[in-house]
């Protein structure tokens, strides 16, 4: 049942997003026949160093969605404390709940089946404006963000320019 | 829980079969000082007992607070299954307790597969539906989605499924077992029951699973009357025969403490990989240098090499004839005096000291590894005696002697861990004397029962066995007395109110 249920749900979300797009990102399928791989374009939120950028990303859903979370990979060059050097986005709601080693309090911030492409992207955009430096995925970026905001801003600005060039 | 104490009938005391009587006597002497810690009583629980104990706690809370049993379970879980604390905390601050545990007020009940009057959008599959299930928080999801959510938790998340919450963002309400059981498949329900039981034992501070492979029993420490918390090592024996330390779940390691054993094991892993092998496997005969491998438990070595026949001690490699009198010193390490330490390279001295204790520890340890072999050899001997005309029952004393021997060796190995961490003072001197006495009689016992059948004298075996048991008890008593004295000294130094209980016991 997993497969068809996931397909139905993803197609429904796609239709909804096409009908009423959400500010801050656009989404579509990589290949029209496969609802599990999504092309995402993130628009850098205003009043952040990312403003003006158009960052390409790939969202991959597992077959047991919505009970397991998708993965989000930013393909454009990117510099952010919570994004791995290879582009993998690390935010708590994308972590499978699994055996919780960090105390049960954080469980509600982890993956839940009610999350949709939209709710995930809202979290990602909020992550861009307020990085979480307590559990950084990219330690260098986190250090720079905290210790040398000017250098951090410059580096992000370079990513933004590059993303505009590749359009 | 309240009923633990009422079932004291089932209590085991911690004594080993071999030293039972002596321990009882000696411990009673030490019950006079108020801090003395007699072996903590415990019970071995089968899966049925665990279910019963859990049900009793749930019933008590559900009846007192007039709530659903499944809500009582959630409450108990967040209070580590302390029913009295759930009840008293609840009466102090009902809302706070419910919120902390993730339980909804009793006015809202969980709804399982009901039909809504108006179609609504299921937050998971985003379809318009009427069927829904919800917890007391009222967050609806359609029943197929809810079932899939519950099923996924059980299938993929192991014991964590027990603490799963409402599937809606930011809702902290816990899934109840009633809802899970209504929505899960049969196989999932069975697995969930296993998880509930596992979580019960894991969460309960006075319960621990028996670490033996495939054993399903758990050990319950009986709540002391004064409500004192569980501290320190506690030797417990499971009905399956496994003997372990309740506090650290490792092999019973008395007289060493859990912390000493932990440090010791780390140290052994770091320092002695090579030495381990060198020391544990072969020794050269001190007279003829032939490599000798020890294949039985006794330390009295007689070189079988042609024309050698040297008798020596496996532990210190000294001649065996020095070992029966006062010259027996192979269990002691002489602390070198300050002058000498200064001259020596300090790290070298430390290594030397460590190796001294380690070689003796590993020696008893590897003798124990042959435990099964020793038991089998005893069976063979008893069979041989039967063949020589004695009856089966007559031979049984040998079995008991073997068990005593194993118990003594078991304790001896950890006495070296304990001694390693002792400061060089009077207590250490006394302890090492007790240790030496025990080691001597243990070797005597070992030598006696390893003799060929026709040379074994029953009275001699019994004598050595009794001596060993007595000395083992003495050793434990010395350790316990020291622990009590130190605890009292610490109390007096700190001037804590607990020290007041002492004059009472003297009066």
UniProtKB/TrEMBL annotation, chain A:
Keywords: ATP-binding, Nucleotide-binding, Transferase, Ubl conjugation pathway
InterPro entries: Ub_conjugating_enzyme, UBC, UBQ-conjugating_AS, UBQ-conjugating_enzyme/RWD
Recorded GO MF terms: ATP binding; ubiquitin conjugating enzyme activity
Enzyme class label: transferase
Keyword field contains Isomerase: no
Domain UBC core residue range list: 5-165
Keyword Nucleotide-binding in annotation: yes
Active site location: 90
Domain of life: Eukaryota
Entry's EC annotation: 2.3.2.23
Pfam families referenced in this protein's UniProt entry, alphabetically: UQ_con
Stated family: Belongs to the ubiquitin-conjugating enzyme family.
Protein name as catalogued: E2 ubiquitin-conjugating enzyme
UniProtKB/TrEMBL annotation, chain B:
UniProt EC number: 2.3.2.31
MF (Gene Ontology): ubiquitin protein ligase activity; zinc ion binding
Pfam families: Ariadne (PF19422), IBR (PF01485), IBR_2 (PF22605), UBA_ARI1 (PF21235), zf-C3HC4 (PF00097)
Pathway info: Protein modification; protein ubiquitination
Entry keyword Transferase: yes
Enzyme's top EC category: transferase
Organism: Diacronema lutheri (Unicellular marine alga)
Domain RING-type: 118-334, 122-170
Catalytic reaction annotation: [E2 ubiquitin-conjugating enzyme]-S-ubiquitinyl-L-cysteine + [acceptor protein]-L-lysine = [E2 ubiquitin-conjugating enzyme]-L-cysteine + [acceptor protein]-N(6)-ubiquitinyl-L-lysine
Acidic residues bias: start-end ranges: 1-29
UniProt lineage: Eukaryota, Haptista, Haptophyta, Pavlovophyceae, Pavlovales
Keywords noted in UniProt: Metal-binding, Repeat, Transferase, Ubl conjugation pathway, Zinc, Zinc-finger
Stated name of the protein: RBR-type E3 ubiquitin transferase
Region described as Disordered: spans on this chain: 1-35
SMART domains: IBR, RING
Gene Ontology annotations of biological process type: protein ubiquitination
SUPFAM superfamilies the record matches: RING/U-box
Keyword Zinc (UniProt): yes
